[in-house]
Amino acid sequence: MARSRKRPRILIAGIGNVLLMDDGVGVHAVEELKMDPPPDCLIAEVGTATFNALHLFEWADKILAIDAMQAGGSPGTLYSFTLSDIEERGPQTSLHELDLLSALRLLNRSLPETLVLGVEPETINYGLELSPSVKASLPHLVQTTKKIVAQWKRH
Domains of the chain by range and CATH? Predict the structure, then answer.
């Protein structure tokens, strides 16, 4: 008799401040994902309230966090990194990655597998809209998110 494989509980978390234009790209991305969500995933708008999302992080086996990330590329460039990349890299490049890592360390269990998708911002200034380059990168970001989730479900 074959053993049934437990499906991972996947959380897609949009991180960032929507009042600061491109800093809110993670929140804008999860809003797009909610229109055509990957099946069997929890999609959450975390914003800047990372510690308020502890119950979601506790629930998840795998977390895909989406955030703005300044790494020197062209605006709209997509990056991916793991929690160990954050720890090894030293100085932060995302305004929220240390909050995410700190929040995850508060969990009463081992850290869930976490991948952060970062988008190079063009403008971080007061405003509700994404810059043209970051807005143009949203379809690629959404597709990449769905591909990662599909890979996680296969393993």
Answer: 10-154 (3.40.50.1450)
